[in-house]
Fold this protein.
Amino acid sequence: MKVTLAKALKEKSRLAGRLKRNFEILSQENSKISGSIRSFDLKALMAETMQMHAAIIRLKQIIAETNAPIAGRLAEMDEIKSIITQLNKIDVTEGIQARSYGETATFDVVFPRAEILRYVETMQKRGEAIQDELDEFNVKTKVELPEL
């Protein structure tokens, strides 16, 4: 069946959620005190889980092949997210700060908080522009999905 890439991505997320849920159930229900009642047929659940695992692999392959034309933009988006995370971790403590035993210390910064926030905002704007391109690609691009 032919669907948009956006729909294929949603299906991948749905499958990933079901896989996570199944593994949680398998982990919780596998080992029980002898004689305890199990809430699920674990053999059937494991078979279903293995089928979903094969399906999500195939789906990811299709998505990766379809994304080839925008691979560079996807990589750029990942790096933008990474740099925003790292920028937000930079210590911006400055001025006189209380220390242990009633002592104080004066901290100097090279990049004050406002400047770090400007860098973050610049990266966010770049990321938003790229995300708009990716969203458009995902809606316009059709993929052939196998029966999952």
Remarks:
- The CA atoms of residues 132 and 138 lie 10 Å apart.
